[in-house]
Amino acid sequence: MRGTGRAIFNQGEPADCCYFLCDGLVKLTRVLMDGDEVILDVLSAPYVLGKGEFLQRSVQFHSAVTLCETVEIAHIKTESLLEHLKDYPSVMQMLLAHLKEQTEKVYKLLACMKLRVRERLLSVIASTSRWREIRRSLFRCRMSSSPS
Asked: What CATH number is associated with residue 122?
């Protein structure tokens, strides 16, 4: 996928695919009831997006937007993925481990919400084990999009 700011999927669209971020950076955003858009997370590869179908959601909870010029995304329809997971239990185990990790991250972020803004920010940055990867990916994105 080429171009910064391109939508991979949008909030409210059917959650009928699972997306795999193979390279690049993606931000997750959500438009709140008052119309404000908030950034939920910035993701670097490897990452599984659009997990709503596993959580029994029929529509996407948030939007996923590219943050650099080149982002590599693979996707598969939910029903196809579920069929393949029956044949490859080790892949299912890895996917479940990923979902567990993401659930734990959400709980940590919710706990941080009780802190003042400065401490909350520092806590989120400190707890993000992928911070170095995100910075490296951002640097690569800037380098690849700068004129030669």
From this structure: 2.60.120.10
